[in-house]
Amino acid sequence: MDLLSNLALGFSVASSFENLFFCLIGVLLGTLIGVLPGIGATATIAMLLPITFQLEPVSSLIMLAGIYYGAQYGGSTTAILINMPGESSSAVTAIDGYQMARKGRAGIALATAAIGSFFAGTVSTFLVAIFAPPLTIIALKFGAAEYFSLMVLGLVMSIALAHGSILKALAMVVLGLLLGMVGTDVYTGTPRFIMGVREFSDGLNFVALAVGVFGIAEILRNLEDEHDREMVTNQVGSLWPRREDFRAMIGPILRGTGIGSILGILPGGGAILAAFASYTLEKKVSKNPKEFGHGAIAGVAGPESANNAGAQTSFIPLLTLGIPANPVMALMIGAMIIQGIVPGPNVATDQPRLFWGIIASMWIGNLMLVVLNLPLIGLWVKLLKVPYYILFPIIMAMCSIGVYSVSSNTFDLYAVAFFGLLGYAMTKLRFEPAPLLLGFVLGPLLEENLRRAMILSRGDPSTFVSRPISLTLLLMSLGVLVLVFLPAIRKSRDEVFIESEG
Amino acid sequence: MSAKPTDTTDAAAGVFLILVAVFFGWQTTGLETGTSLRMGPGYFPMVLSALLLIMGVLVLVKSFKGQGERIGRIAWRGLIFILPAPIFFGLTVRGLGFVPSLFVTTLIASQASVRMKPLPALVLAVLVTVLSTLVFSYALGLPFRRFGPWLPF
To answer: Which of A29, A197, A353, A454 is the most exposed, fewest CB within 10 Å of its CB?
Structure first.
């Protein structure tokens, strides 16, 4: 069977000594930084991105993927131990996980999260392997109009899932698109928005933008008000769930995996949505819903499986279409482009080693997380006690080295400072950075496909609605926009986010 | 609707968007717009600037009603010490070389916290410099000059 031989190829690539090593380093680094409070997966990847550029493309992407799972795992650890979700998708875990920790069941909560994540990771890796190839065949039929419409859908979804004002999220997408235009126009070679700065002619540096807007802005926000972090627990307690714990987590893990796998494919940040959806579902089907919010094991098992499944299946749009489903995937696209790989349906056929290697490494990465992290929990707990004022100078040093090492261009370092300031100003004005980053990455692609589609249709804009796939995608975008602007939905959407912040 | 914006954060956000839109719009004026059949380099940016301007105005108008969160504290000390750190690194990494440049960069960044005392800051900067030099320069073999031409030795 094709699938098996492809998977075998993938595992042979991913289990080479070198790639196993980089996967391990990625997973460890990701967890390490994910555990440090106040720095989520996106900021972690943005900061560690430059380190991977020295590697082979396959190893580099395997390591980045490892950082991604590691950071997510680290995020749930802090959510459980100190009620501080490392990133939005583990916000739900904090609700019941932290309560379990307060009752002395931190170890079990952590083990549940690990088991759930591993199971979901295994299932969704197979889903990626099964569904990605047929989707690339469909994707190869995509013309410029379809690509344009698909990206519109992705951007609209990122707005729908952003916190706060929809209008402001929309404005961030547009600003991101504009920033993506800086540089030389592909069709005519005309320089745009470069203001006489020669360094701008290749476009703004993606790493500098991501490190500035996510990394530096987060450091500044944490420095606003320096207070001690509350440590609930020094005792993690037993790590081994009892038999009744296992019984209580099986259902939620299965359902969470299902929900997560489906929602993860949606462009725009499915993992967060999946975690919320799973929590809501578990609360509904539970025999004693009152337990939720007071340390229900299902409230950890379900959402953790769902967000991990979602995190994996969000690779499907990336690998098949070259379209990022969330800011992390946008960073992956940036990494691929820097490595000289054009993301899109051709990756599967042109670079089968890369394509299947990444898929196989997902599973290996998840396995490593379970095997390594449960014994290392003591170390992570110690790390939580390192004061922030020691951490951020280290982070700043790493950011500076990292950004400089991308192309040995000192100008990129000034850009980091500028984007850090911009990112901080944006958080102060309550703008979300995620839509901006997606807009920035998709901007050039969006414009190119728009212009190509218009040339192909001889200037007739109806090409976007006369082609069935394109029309469907645009209708879906419209539907999402209408939904988020409907008062009733808007209200419940606000509630979900308030719950996540509370 | 009152004469003053009630949501000051959103009012500032609206003004921010309008300024950015005007800036980009002004920068596109020199670019060829072309027709919708053969779009010039200025077509798409022009459309986007116009969209951003409209959104900025909408955010500003909406800020006159409804209450919002205030802007809150601003990390002035953080801004003063964090942002110059990468800039200093950029200015000196070639001249002073990787080792001294990184040492001072870490020292500058460490001053962003009121809690950092001089001695721990020094110790931290030394540790970071030594470890980074070992990892990046020796182990990963990145082509940095450890000590640059500005130094007498």
So the answer is: A197
Structure confidence at residue A419 as a pLDDT band (50, 70, 90): very high
Among the partner residues B44, B52, B121, nearest to A175 by beta-carbon distance = B52
Same domain, B36 and B86: no
Task: Judge if B82 and B47 occupy the same domain.
Answer: no
Give the total number of structural domains in chain A: 1
Q: Which residues of chain B lie closer than 8 angstroms to A181, CB-CB?
A: 44-45, 48
Which domain covers residue B35, as residue numbers? 8-62
Question: Are A167 and B62 within 8 A, CB to CB?
Answer: yes
Domain contains A374:
yes
- Contact call for A223 and B77, based on CB within 8 A: yes
Integer CA distances (angstroms), A289 to A302, B85, B130, in order: 14, 51, 54
Let me know if residue A39 belongs to a domain. Answer: yes
Most confident of A232-236, A268-272, A483-487: A483-487
Instruction: For residue B54, tell me if it sits in a domain.
Output: yes
The 3-state DSSP composition of chain B as helix, strand, coil percent (nearest 5) reads: 60, 0, 40
* Domain membership flag for residue B108: yes
Distances in Å between the Cα of A372 and the Cα atoms of A64, A86, A227, A246 are: 18, 19, 31, 21
> Which residues in chain B have their CB less than 8 angstroms from residue A390's CB?
120, 124
Instruction: Compute the distance between CA of residue A222 and CA of residue A195 in angstroms, rounded to an integer.
Output: 33
Domain count, chain B: 2
Contact list, B121 vs chain A (CB under 8 Å): 393
* Beta carbons of A420 and B83 less than 8 Å apart: yes
| Largest separation between any pair of C-alpha atoms in chain B | 69
A431–B48 C-beta distance less than 8 A: no
Residue B132 within a domain: yes
Which one of B113, B127, B130, B131 makes the best mutation probe of the A interface by having the most chain A beta carbons within 10 Å? B113
Boundary residue ending a domain (B62, B87, B104): B62
Assess if residue B1 is contained within a domain.
no
Cα A18 to its chain centre, rounded Å, is 25
Mean pLDDT, residues B114-120: 85
CB pair distance less than 8 Å for B24 and A389: no
Average pLDDT of chain A? 80
Interface contact flag, B140 A424, Cβ < 8 Å:
no
pLDDT at B143 over 70: yes
Task: Tell me, yes or no, whether A442 lies in a domain.
Answer: yes
Q: Which residues does A448 contact at the CB level (< 8 Å), separation at least 6?
A: A144, A186
Instruction: Give the residue numbers spanning the domain of A477.
Output: 2-320+341-501
Interface with B, mutate which of A193, A218, A413 (most B CBs under 10 A):
A413
